[in-house]
Amino acid sequence: MTTTFYHLSHIDLDGYSCQLVMAQTDHTMFSYNANYGAEVMDRLEEIIETIKKGKQTATILISDLNLYPEEAKWLNNEVNRLNEAGWNITITLLDHHGSGKETAAQYPWYTLDTERCATKIVYDYALEHYGLKAGGWLEAFVKVVNAVDLWHQNETEDFEYGKVCMRLISEAKELNRVMFADEDRAYKLALLEEAAMMRFHEKANIVLDESLHRLKKQFFKDGVDDTLDNLSTKHIVALLGTKRSTMTIYYKGWRGFLSYGLGNTSIIGNGFLTEYPDYDFIVDVGTRGTMSLRGHNKVDVAAMAGEWVGGGGHPNAAGGRIQGFKEQFRYDKVKRHMEDMLANKEAMPGKLPHKIEE
């Protein structure tokens, strides 16, 4: 019988490699990623919310992240409540950070081992408990991650190869991690798997180093070659199109698309508005509350920015800042904040006219 896993892992090489290991098992996986800080609780809450949508046997697997006592207490209590109500949920935490020592001592589901990287811990655990098969490219790659994550410079070949893999992950920034969580993870895991397969090349670290740009282009290429910027932009615009049902907002009848932390709004925003002419504007909110609006000769986004936050600019390109905005790690919270703000602004007098439907 397969188990459904809700796998939360860190956002570095070790964290994503844990998920690459679990992807080789036969279990159903729903994956999440978080950096330390407030994002961890956001992701734990998201996992619990998802589990509550249907009773099932499931394991919450956490790797390469230590939980602090208050986080672990909250999760333990939530899972106990679900199990008392008829769910069958277990927790497994596999980590190597010494800062989790206090929490690990309190919960039997918390495995702490500072002698192995998280990827190695997950790999060994999956061999014993999850039906993972030993050997092959995956075992070799686990050695690479272990060498570089624990900084074993004496394991020269694995260490040097791991350094390039670390850069592979840190520079794979083409997709936004909040808006496109699943797609971004799939991108990084695809790159890692390609890298793992190249481990046994002669001078493998140099071969991988010289292949990084090609591997990225290969992922985004759709039959026609182009620059990486153009290929990734085309890919992102297509992804935005798939998100229209959940990322559309309205203001005074004008139809807009709300993105978060997307960046490069001039190119991607104009590409989106060209591809989807039924939209009047696109607005990208940055993690610090900055806003970048783009229009396509339909609505004056400078007037719009002025009414929203006292911003301004040009009729087709404007910006501003949302005062008091706190960084968010879930898109639904960003959208809720924006919709509440726009509802309040729409009720106030302003210069921007309501859209007249044709």
Give the number of helices. 14
The rounded distance between the terminal residues' Cα atoms is 57 Å
Oligomer: single chain
Strands of the largest sheet, in order across it? 6-7-8-9-11-10
* Number of separate structural domains: 2
Instruction: Determine the fraction of residues in helical runs and give it as a percent range.
Output: 40-55%
Q: What CATH architecture of the largest domain do you see?
A: Alpha-Beta Complex
H and E order? EHEHEHEHEHHHHHHHEEHEEHEEH
Q: Which whole number gives the mean pLDDT?
A: 94
The whole-angstrom Rg is 23 Å
Q: Percent of residues in beta strands?
A: 15-25%
Low-confidence stretches: none
| CATH topology assignment of the largest domain | inorganic pyrophosphatase (n-terminal core)
| Extended strand count | 11
Note down, in words, how this protein is organized.
With 358 residues, the chain is α/β, with parallel strands linked by helices. It has two domains: 4-220, inorganic pyrophosphatase (n-terminal core); 243-346, Diaminopimelate Epimerase, Chain A, domain 1, CATH 3.10.310. Helices cover 49% and strands 17% of the residues. The chain is built from 14 helices and eleven strands. It has helices at 13-22, 38-51, 69-84, 101-104, 118-129, 136-149, 156-170, 181-197, 204-220, 228-242, 244-247, 265-275, 301-309, 331-346, and strands at 4-9, 28-33, 57-63, 88-95, 110-112, 248-251, 254-260, 281-285, 290-295, 312-314, 317-321. It has a six-stranded mixed sheet. It has a five-stranded parallel sheet with strand order 2-1-3-4-5, sandwiched between helices. Strand 3 (57-63), helix 3 and strand 4 form a beta-alpha-beta unit. Helix 8 (181-197) packs antiparallel against helix 9 (204-220). The longest helix is centred in the middle third of the chain and has 17 residues, at 181-197. The chain is globular, with a radius of gyration of 23 Å. It starts with a strand and ends in a 12-residue tail after the last helix. The model has no long low-confidence stretch (mean pLDDT 94).
